[in-house]
Amino acid sequence: MSATESDKASVDANDSGMAAKDPAKRRRVLLIVAGAFILAGLCWFLLWLFVFSTRVKTDNAYVGGNQVAISAQVPGTVVAILADDTQHVDAGQVLVKLDSTDADTRLQQARSALAQAVRGVRQQTSSASSADAQVATARLALKKAEADLKRHLPLVAAQAESPEIVQHMRDGVEQAQAALSAAEAQSAAAHAAIEGTDVAQNPAVLQARANFRAAWVAAQRNEIYAPVSGYVAERSVQLGNSVAAGQQLMTVVPLHDLWIDANFKESQLRHIRIGQPVTVTSDLYGGDVEYQGKVIGLGAGTGSVFSLLPAQNATGNWIKVVQRVPVRIALDNQALDKHPLRIGLSADVTVDIRDDKGSMLANTPAQQPVAQTTVYDQMASKADAEADRIISANLPHTAAAN
């Protein structure tokens, strides 16, 4: 060992000895280390108290939405396809057309039957008026026969008239009474078919109108409409296909009203309540876009319960697995319009649980429909308008004007 190395070793030994012999310095070192640990623990406690304890997070969350299946309502052959995958369609837009030859024929038959029913009721009304006139004629005939008999009765008493003639007059009165009864019966029968209603409300016309309405709607259903606005997906229909009623042809996905299904662990559900604010980020936009939402409901069971083959934990071959429950989160539609999402996309969800006084489960029934469309109502109203036009066209001009 060289002299230099010896000197350095001796100096280090002297310093170590001095440090070991200096308890004040050692305490300062220990205090600094302990202070660092205490400060780190305090920072962690404050972080947990003001951040981590006020929220729960999960990345097991996916965008959900309605998938409106478009299916045929009547059987037929496809002659036109007017929308394809990824295209936007509006509610009421025609998506598929079927061959309408048979339906048009049935519609013409129903149209003719309705017109004939109106004219038949008009004829019954005229027959009733004619029967009333016959009643009036029979009443006059009876009145005349009774008057003639009354004039001849004194003559019989005075032996100025033959009893046979008076008997013939009595027979005539009875015949007139019978004729009046028959006329009144015919009048009642004629009025029974039309009494209490006008032509448009007559049962025969209403039946023909219902048949026409059904034929008209069936003919219109050869054009398959979009019940909602959205984007076309899963188109399977092809030209020339013979489709059956109820067969699915494509799907329309409305991307305006979407939600998030966040699958939280059962241990995270303790403080989640309906109405709590939620922040959502999607992998589609990364952290650049945040969606604001709120909790609108918690699932009635875990995902495994509703699976195709639910787990049978009572079989004995059991392994404890942390279960997850879907939590439904509504999103702001304005944010969705500005930054569109797609159903099935993954998302990160953070629920603010500071206010946990609300309800965990919904306790009131829904007051508004979850979804609705007026497309088919418009179809029915057009059928009624066409039926009214047919009835009006087959009424007398004065009645139609009234």
UniProtKB/TrEMBL annotation:
TM spans (from-to): 29-51
Multidrug export protein EmrA/FarA alpha-helical hairpin domain residues: 101-221
Main location (coarse class): other
One family name in Pfam for this protein: Beta-barrel_AAEA
Domain p-hydroxybenzoic acid efflux pump subunit AaeA-like beta-barrel stretches: 259-351
Compartments reported by the entry: Cell envelope
Keyword Transmembrane helix on entry: yes
Keyword annotations from UniProtKB, A to Z: Membrane, Transmembrane, Transmembrane helix
Protein name from the UniProt record: Efflux RND transporter periplasmic adaptor subunit
Source organism per UniProt: Rhodanobacter terrae
